[in-house]
Amino acid sequence: MQSENNQEKSGKKYWRSLEEMAESPELLARMKNEFPSGAAEFEVTPGVDRRSFLGIIGASAAFAGLTSTAGCIRKPSEKILPYNKRPEELVEGKPQFYASAGRFGGSVFGLLVTSYEGRPTKIDGNPSHPMSLGATNTFAQAAILDVYDPDRSQSVLKNGKSVEATRTTLKSLKAALAAASAELKANGTSGQGVALLMEAAPSPTLIGLVRDFQVAFPKATLAIHDPAMRWQETAALDSMGFKNAQLFYRLEEADVLAMFDADPLGIEGDVVRNSKMFAAKRRSVDESKTMSRLYVVESAFTNTGVVADHRLSLRSSAMGEALLALASELSSQGLALPAEIVARSKQISSPNEKWLKALATDLLLNKGKSLVMVGQSQRAWIHSIAFAINSALGNLGQSVVVRSSNLPAAVSLAELTTEMNRGSIQALVILDANPVYTSAADLEFSEALKKVKTSIHLGYHADETAVACSMHFPRSHSLESWGDLVSTDGTASIVQPVIEPLFASLSDVEFLAGLLGVSKNSYELVQAQWKKSTPSDFDSSWRRWLHDGVVKGTIGETLTAKADFSKLAQQLAGLGASPTPTASQMELRLTLDRSVFDGRYTNNAWLQEIPDSVTKLTWDNAALLSPKTAKEKGIKTGDFVEIKVKQDKERSLKIAAYVVPGIAENTVVVSLGYGRSFNGRVSNGTGFNGYSLLSREDMFSFGAEVQRTTGKYELATTQEHGVSDYQYDTMVGREAITTRGVTREVTLATLKADPTLENTFKKFNLLDPKMHRTLLWTKPNETRGNQWGMAIDLNSCTGCNACTVACQAENNISVVGKKQVLKSREMHWIRIDRYFTGNVDNPDSIQATFQPMACAHCETAPCEQVCPVAATVHGVEGTNDIAYNRCIGTRYCANNCPYKVRRFNYFNFSKENDEANPLYAMQKNPRVTVRFRGVIEKCSYCVQRINAARVEAKIRGEEILREGSVVTACQQVCPTDAITFGNLADDVDSRVKQLKALPRNYAVLSELALEPRTTFLAKVRNTNPELEPSTQL
Amino acid sequence: METSVTLANLEEHVDKRAPLVLGRETFSSVTDIVARPMEMATPKTWWICFLIALSGLGVLGAAIAYLFWEGVGVWGLNNRVGWAWDITNFVFWVGIGHAGTLISAILFLFRQKWRTSINRAAEAMTIFAVICALIFPGIHVGRVWVAYWLFPIPNQMAMWPNFRSPLLWDVFAVSTYFTVSTLFWFVGLIPDIATFRDRSKGIRKFVYGLFALGWRGSHRHWLNYERAYLILAALSTPLVLSVHTIVSFDFATSQLPGWHATIFPPYFVAGAIFSGFAMVINLMIICRWVFKLEHLVTMRHFENMAKIILLTGSMVGYAYAMEFFIAWYSGNPYERYIFISRATGPYAWAYWTMVTCNVIIPQLFWVRKIRTNLWALFIIAVFVNIGMWFERFVIIVTSLHRTFLPSSWAYFKPTFVDIATFIGSFGLFFTLFLLFIRFLPIVAISEVKTVMPEADPHGHGHDTKGGAHS
User: Fold this and answer.
1) Domains in chain B, start-ordered, CATH in brackets?
2) pLDDT tops 80 at residue B451
3) A297 and A365 assigned to the same domain
4) CA of residue A544 relative to chain centroid, distance
5) Looking at the whole model, is its pTM more than 0.90?
6) Complex ipTM
């Protein structure tokens, strides 16, 4: 029902149309304001130091033009304030970097935050942190925008309503917190009837305070609700005798990997570290002609599934059986597995016997160097079997390690809800979780919450839970307050703030301490925690930790006890075969979303506009169906379907369908996190709420009815615009790979047989290499000065999108909104092209491949030749430059660009962004021009970074910029180091030069004689000769 | 009776050339016939037509104003299809603007005397069509307020345009064509304007007098006039070929499959003549009927034009076929794909509309009955214009929407602003044309008189051998 309005809302509310903006009272009010409008956005609280105040003022100049808002105002009047006394170490215009840490999508990352005059603008990975190793994922990249989210909670709410006429001040916030503390304590000191619900935040200070809370309220219930919480894995480990433990994976140790519904390179666990380690194992192909082999069994394409060498499409509910069948194969091939498993596995016959047999053989050949991984949504017993297989294969301690977790023992949300329903909870404290939205439908949490007298919530947004609780407190962003975090391998980091809270708000630790009656700020609380474990010379250690971003030594220990499988027998005994779904009784698979995770990022415009890795959908989720299933049910992309599931009662969801290859048959896949009722200017009207179908048991369920209903919905994708027939599209994808040579892949066997790849690639040479070619324009001299070039390794790329967001953050790229994406006007400078190959009707034959594509900086660039005003010209260092001020916007260059990477500002997108989200302007990188309406823009090889490095080199008296002195934003963030940028004219062999000399190196569309500076390294699939490759390439 | 008169000059006789002016018209009656629409009281129908055209012009103004205010995004363009209706309309109008100069210059040099009764209107059509065409490259740019950077104007930035860009060549080609066409038209008008100076009174007389440049019809005037006319005709002739050649360079010199083709210059010129003559037929049929010009604009004129349409239509059809052949023969997969996609892809409907209108329908002109039937002529000419608009649409949009990388394929849908701008450009065209028929002679009086028997000193059947009076 909500969905029909979605289209209009999501387009209009946030996007464009001066008409609408003109009607908005907010804007009218701002227009009347004689001062730069940004300045009026902030009430400068007493806590704000001059530095951030000036930052705010400086940023507000960017939207000062609003005061006389019109289409074509080019030079708005601006008011700026100079520093009266300049802070030490500060050089205006020069960024400062601070080490910090953050937890995004289930992994803790060490961060390096870029800050200009007290204004953080970009987040990058801390190279010395083991979980980021210099890179991050999309969520971490986009987190900087969350700081400036105009919809973040700014006031204390009581029963969902603001208690004050004005925005909450720090003083009133503290008073309200004291009142809440008193209310909590009114329940008595025993803690009977008190519950604390938190996310699985591995913060020592917070956990210390939770323990204090448990001391103050001894009988209090502690519950954890977190999409990244590994309940099943922990339960499995628990049943095998490892108390409070979790697994830590070391993909660098694995030569053969088997994934069962697991996505370690996508959104599960420490994705950046996993990706780095996995990619290293793939890149070895160039030196040693060896690489790891990845087998994936999954119900829908994940990033891991796309890069797999062999992929089996299987519904999620059958993963256990598949794993048992594998165990059976392994034991029949001589692997000693626990008797409990062998006994049960003998009863299993799998239709994919051949596939599993080949996998089993491969695993046995690589004992101690393999890894079997099970997805976090799979049941505990399946994890136990995987653990048993890993132990038997000798992978334990190698590719997989059991580590103790620092999280306190807690109950799940389901158990807490049961207690709440029983009426035994009178006071509930919710720490930064949003259970009203993110809980299973059959829990009916919001009903249970009504039975709780006092509910106190701390959250970043005034979200669904905030308005349902009796009290809500605004939470600070993790870049605004002190904290600490421990990653899965035990590395601790101090979370260092880089800006004062923009609005009066509390951090997790301040809030919890405040509830306990401790009036300390987060700095004092974190220091107090760390002083406990660092008795001597705390101050210098502290300074070192802040500087490095990593605390020396690890927290927690590696557990090496012998696993006990006795309990597994009972679990396996009661197990029946999972039912096979049919067209009328389908399997429903709910997943975390690659763009908005569990829904917490729905109000982040960058993440909303990021095209999903596989579907390329933006701004919405959809019910994903395989082409075959869709055809049988008469469903086409964009049709509304109704999904009905039977839980305690029948629940249904009306949702738009999207047909995409690679989904298991008779399975419908819906990602969670969209369709929120939270009133955010970005999130409004986006997608459909998958939680309304979620059961407390599993992320997948059997017996779902999927029926086409009336109506159509427009889904905005960045590929296949206007192409709805996948048969056709897949054909075209195959053509791109097989005949056009746009994206090239070879098997390892081919590479070994033809090491120079000359014969293999010969078919792609449309031009006879012996033919004399005369170039119309002279090629630039490649040996003089610095000559920039890039190599992108398709063998490493996992299509994670981090480069796209990093580029957006670095280069001030506008978000355009769903309506404009529907018109193919997205602005991303680097995009990830995804091509499918295989037979659409056979999901097992479908393969996909990723290809990041940005301006290739052609030496004989077709864009430069056609620009009538010479706005796009060749730089002396081989870059293809645009003078935005010279561009008149004929778009001829974009038409003539064979890679279609040039983006046109059809409207004044950057201004509209700032109008729609007034705080966004503060994120802008001051070193990059904000583009105006009517000009073309595209990848500049981060020319601002090149220029900054040149200045540094000049100071040192050097002309040539050496390896590593310029790192582009996409290169920096890439979790697989797929992107390498460097100086081709460096007399020392730079890495990019080495890569370009590899036989795998090729230029896309080389026959056009464009001599692009960005070249690609062909993908290599390490196929198992025993398994026929699904597509002959 | 009428039919017999009109058909009378369709046949050439061995002993005598067919007359170009029918009826028993004299010099003075020719002047009267042409002067009638200018000297009659403004008819109601003219006002109605003019108001409709003016509304169209208003629509154009509003659409452009909205475009300037909001940005190019009000059109349906996207990052893959950077040009669509804007440049389609530009090429369409430039193409129409070809027939006029072709008729007046090339046919003049080739002594095709039948041109005299249609050249004036055709030239006017040319100029108005070029005005319509010039609007589009001007407004399609993202930042119109700096569109003047396209011109090589000395400036403080010491910045010249990029002379390698075909868009810049366009600027020169089209502006030169416009200037020369306008001059040519004006020079041809001088004797006729003088006629009207002498026939009118008051302010009208003054204005006509101003533009008549003191024409008295003296022998020396005629001598200079004819020399000037001949020179301008010689100057315009290469322009007829060069304008559309250079317009085609916009596409031919780029490297997109579907654009990058050496066949484009002749193919574009043929197409332009094709569409230009179709437009002339449309306009002349109406003018002839409204202003009773049957004796001056005869069926023979229409038949000749129909033959040209048949010829150029077949040339265009040959070019379409040759594009496919070359795509196949080149062995270039991109080239092959784009042509298969044109004929079978999402825009197949546009491609087949084009083929039907441009290649199949004009073949009906092989039949003389159809060539000499005004209704058939009119309808087929309309089809030709539709077809030629689609030809440009097909070349521009289908090539852009399926380029090298399959990831960047998109579909273009026009918005109402696209449509309004196109309709509005017709408003502009007809506003100008209606003003033209009210205030200027639509037939070149002085030239028509030269092809009448009376102009021949050896006329009246006295001496068919062409000898002097004896």
Assistant:
1) 2-11+19-452 (1.20.1630.10)
2) no
3) yes
4) 30
5) no
6) 0.90
